[in-house]
Every structure is written in C-alpha cells, then in structure tokens.
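Whether sequence alone determines local backbone shape is best considered at the level of individual chains. When preparing material for the folding task, we compiled for one chain both its residues and its backbone structure tokens. The sequence in question and its structure tokens are set out directly beneath this paragraph.
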Amino acid sequence: TISPADINHNETLSTLRYANRAKNIINKPTVNEDANVKLIRELREEIERLKAVMSGDPLMLANVQEQLAAKEAKEQKLTAEWNEKWREAAKILQEHNALGLK
C-alpha cells in the first residue's frame, strides 16, 4: 500500500517498485495452432494466391498451374491425414468411454 506516513516508507517503496515492474510487462499472445493445421491453412492461402496470379500473365500460366496442382495435392493429402488422425482419436475415445475409463 502507498501511505504518506514515515512508518510505511519501505512498504510504499516496495509497492512502487512492483507497480513499475508490472507496467513494463509486455505480453505477446500467440495462437495455439497445430503444425499440420497451420500448414493446411497456409497451403489454402497459397492456392488462392496462385489462382489470382493465373488470371493475369499467360506466360506464367503453365508454371503457376503446375505449382497450383502440386499445392492442391499436398493440401488434400494433409487434410486426409489430419481427418484420419481425428477419426482414430474419436475411435479411441469411444473405446475408453465404452470401458468406463477416463
């Protein structure tokens, strides 16, 4: 606590030091995101970007189409793997619930 009384001098200084340290704290929030989900999201964004580029210069079209096909295939593969992992997790959870485990 902060007090003008001499008897509380040490406690007042301690409180002010704590307040000074607390105001200097900087929080950097981050999203808890699975690496596979992040990769899938980034691939989808890249696919959209490549589709936008395809509507432009016809000389780059063949190269961009090849990149687009590769990224779409990778995105589909990762999505399928991710869905399979979720199905396995759900199956395990059902088995645990059926056995009465927590």
DSSP finds three helices and no strands in the chain. The chain has a mean pLDDT of 84. The radius of gyration is 28 Å. Helices lie at 9-23, 35-54, 61-99.
